[in-house]
Design brief:
This protein is of the alpha+beta class. The chain has two domains: 187 residues, Sulfite Oxidase, Chain A, domain 2 (Alpha-Beta Complex); 125 residues, Sandwich (Immunoglobulin-like), CATH 2.60.40. It is built from seven helices and 24 strands. The radius of gyration is 25 Å and the shape is globular. The chain starts with a helix and ends in a 7-residue tail after the last strand. The structure holds the ligand Nc1nc2c(c(=O)[nH]1)N[C@H]1C(S)=C(S)[C@@H](COP(=O)(O)O)O[C@H]1N2 and molybdenum atom. The site of molybdenum atom has 6 residues, from loops.
């Protein structure tokens, strides 16, 4: 006679299989679905699994990886769901490597045009009113114009999204008594690059934060442990990591990173955009994307859209190389200066196609084509490249990066 638990397992196994097949058939029509074996579902119930542990690890079957080079590592956008980037998969961009900082010896100096120059320890910073904010960070060098075999991660994996926690910079500036004559502040890191950027005071009083936590935990060393500046919506470079000094002044400091680097030569050959902080609206389809091979039938086109100017208001998707566009669904919550998920249901009938997405933000800014961008910016500019990118779909179902779109 069957025991109670055997009976339950068997009937649950059958139910699951039936439900799965019915669900799959409903969702993707007559497409082939591999028969599900109930064997494993029974095996795992025969002996207890591992008990609780101090810290968990991913399932051995789940292996998302950043793609590191000597100076950066890229978030595997194609492997992620929702909008939050796990801290250990956040992209990294280092100009002088990751310093090891002892939190008990850490200090942040705020001085210059202030009434009370002050040194803050980590514990001091944590005593101030604490705020959390979900927003994206993106390197302004975030475009790789690779060949057809380019992953989403390689196209634009120098962006990630986090729930950051810390103290508003304006709170600290109240504490030190910021001078009314201050118009800029310098942010300086304590890494070997001694990264320094000049930031307008308006940003300090708007939404700048001094953060010490990332997705509920201390910052990762590569992302600025123990403390970094966070400037929502602005080019990643200005969010100085391992922050050790803020100096208020009545002019920008003209550091290397805002003169020889992070400036944008324009098309006329003589003008250069400087202090081009804001990240323009952008989007990318993360699925289907290279290296997937798809079958004819229904596919949910999925991707991410974001803007440094505020909220994304719409994302349009084209499946015919830009000839016609359709509004995609945006997945709540749609936060300002944040990655937003979009999705569009597509019936692929089997011919060659090209899928692409185009983001619009609340200021009315529309993500440009590569040609339109080049016309305005010229051929020599390296930063702030946010063109519409595409994936081509061959008759054989192979999905490849639309590298042709970025030629010229
Ligand atoms: N101190 C310091 N801050 C820094 C950098 C650096 O090299 N040193 N890199 C900048 C650049 S170019 C970017 S894009 C972002 C990347 O932040 P992340 O590594 O946390 O993703 O940090 C910025 N802040
Ligand atoms: Mo960057």
């Amino acid at each position: 006679m069957m025991s109670r638990s055997d009976r339950r397992t068997t009937s649950r196994g059958r139910l699951t299989r039936r439900a799965l097949l019915a669900g799959a058939a409903g969702a993707i029509g007559a497409a082939a679905v591999a028969p599900v074996s109930g064997q494993q579902a029974i095996e795992t119930t025969r002996r207890p699994g591992r008990g609780p542990s101090e810290i968990d690890q991913r399932s051995p079957f789940v292996t998302p990886r950043r793609a590191p080079s000597a100076t950066s590592s890229r978030t595997p956008l194609q492997d992620l769901r929702g909008t939050i980037t796990p801290a250990d998969l956040h992209f990294e961009r280092h100009h002088g490597g990751v310093p090891e900082i002892d939190p008990t010896r850490y200090e942040l100096l705020i001085h210059g045009l202030v009434q009370r120059p002050t040194l803050f320890g980590l514990a001091d910073l944590k005593r101030f009113p604490s705020t959390s904010r979900i927003c994206f960070l993106e390197c302004s060098g975030n475009l790789r114009r690779g060949g057809p075999d380019t992953l989403p991660q390689m196209v634009c994996g120098l962006t990630s999204q986090t729930e950051w926690t810390g103290v508003m910079l304006s709170t600290l500036l109240d504490e030190v008594g910021a001078g009314s004559d201050a118009t800029w502040f310098l942010a300086e890191g304590q890494d070997a690059a001694v990264m320094t950027r000049s930031i307008p005071m308006e940003k300090a009083f708007d939404d700048a934060m001094v953060v010490y936590a990332q997705n509920g935990d201390a910052l990762m060393p590569g992302n600025g442990y123990p403390v970094r500046l966070l400037l929502p919506g602005w080019e990643g470079n200005s969010s100085v990591k391992w922050l050790r000094r803020i100096e208020l002044a009545d002019r920008p400091f003209m550091t290397r990173e805002e003169t020889s680097k992070y400036t944008d030569p324009l098309g006329d050959g003589s003008t250069v955009r400087q202090f081009s902080f804001v990240m323009d609206a952008r989007s990318i389809i993360t699925d289907p994307a290279y290296p997937r091979v798809i079958e004819p039938g229904w596919h949910e086109i999925r991707g991410l859209a974001w803007s440094g100017r505020g909220r994304i208001t719409r994302v349009d998707v084209s499946t015919d190389g830009g000839a016609s566009w359709h509004a995609a669904d945006l997945q709540a919550p749609v936060l300002p200066k944040a990655h937003v998920r979009f999705r569009y249901l597509w019936h692929w009938t089997g011919g060659p196609g090209e899928i692409m997405s185009r983001a619009t933000d609340e200021t009315g800014y529309v993500q440009p084509t590569w040609d339109a961008l080049r016309e305005v910016r010229g051929p020599r500019t390296r930063y702030h490249q946010n063109p519409i990118t595409s994936w081509t779909v061959g008759s054989d179902g192979r999905v490849l990066f639309g590298a042709e779109r970025l030629r010229s």
